[in-house]
């Protein structure tokens, strides 16, 4: 049995844990992310994350924005695969607190944690990103509006990934679309 080289942050001790996700590849492969039971998130499955990041390829030197961060698994996976900076944005206090605690396991990556409404953040943000990962609650967000706002924050050659339910009706025209059961991944490129 191998030792866990990426320990759980001590700040989670005594908290009821809901998710126990592992980073799938890269520098932090095998690192376990934890979420408090009350965070109310729907983490992206390992199968979908693996396929998504296989499609995205090398992320070395990338700046990443993870919106509707939830567990933070998408942003942390990007960090493990070479992103130099990841900004996490979610409006849940406990969710952002949990992501911040998991961030203690990732050294050498510039991590920012913002608790704010995603649409408000996108309107006020002056930064551009190489990759934006959006995993909003299924069937609760205007995905056309989200895509319109997020694309404005992409740098030249940037990519926007939106995870949604296949049941959601929205305009993903121009995107590379993959479906995994109920999950749809749409990748837009600038």
The overall strand count is 9
Distance between the termini: 46 Å
Reported CATH architecture = 3-Layer(aba) Sandwich
Name the overall outline. globular
| Percentage of residues in helical conformation | 10-25%
Strand order within the widest sheet? 5-4-3-6-7-9-8
The level 1 CATH classification is: Alpha Beta
| Mean pLDDT across all amino acids | 88
Describe the structure.
- The protein is an alpha/beta fold and 190 residues long.
- The protein has a single domain (10-189), classed as Rossmann fold.
- The chain contains five helices and nine strands; from the N terminus they run E-E-H-E-H-E-H-E-H-E-H-E-E-E.
- The strands form two sheets. It has a seven-stranded mixed beta sheet with strand order 5-4-3-6-7-9-8, sandwiched between helices.
- The protein starts with 16 loop residues before the first strand and ends with a strand.
What attributes does this structure have?
190 residues; alpha/beta; Rossmann fold; seven-stranded mixed β-sheet; 5 helices; 9 strands; 24% helix; globular
Q: Summarize this, please?
A:
The chain is α/β, with parallel strands linked by helices. It has helices at residues 46-56, 73-80, 93-103, 118-124, 143-151, and strands at residues 17-22, 32-36, 63-67, 85-90, 110-115, 129-134, 154-165, 176-180, 183-189. The protein has a single domain (10-189), classed as 3-Layer(aba) Sandwich (Rossmann fold).
């Amino acid at each position: 049995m191998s030792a866990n080289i990426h320990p759980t942050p001590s700040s989670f001790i005594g908290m009821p844990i809901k998710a126990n996700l592992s980073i799938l590849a890269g520098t932090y492969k095998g690192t376990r992310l934890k979420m408090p039971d009350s965070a109310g998130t729907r983490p992206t499955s390992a199968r979908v994350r693996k396929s998504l990041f296989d499609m995205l390829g090398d992320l070395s030197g990338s700046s990443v924005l993870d919106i509707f961060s939830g567990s933070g698994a998408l942003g942390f996976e990007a960090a493990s695969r070479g992103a130099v900076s990841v900004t996490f944005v979610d409006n849940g206090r406990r969710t952002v607190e949990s992501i911040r605690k998991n961030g203690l396991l990732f050294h050498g990556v510039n991590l920012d944690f913002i608790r704010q409404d995603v649409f408000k953040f996108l309107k006020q943000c002056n930064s551009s990103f190489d990759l934006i990962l959006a995993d909003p609650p299924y069937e609760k967000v205007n995905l056309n509006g989200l895509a319109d706002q997020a694309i404005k924050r992409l740098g030249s050659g940037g990519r926007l990934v939106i995870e949604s339910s296949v049941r959601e009706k929205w305009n993903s025209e121009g995107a590379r679309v993959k479906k995994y059961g109920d999950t749809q991944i749409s990748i837009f490129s600038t």
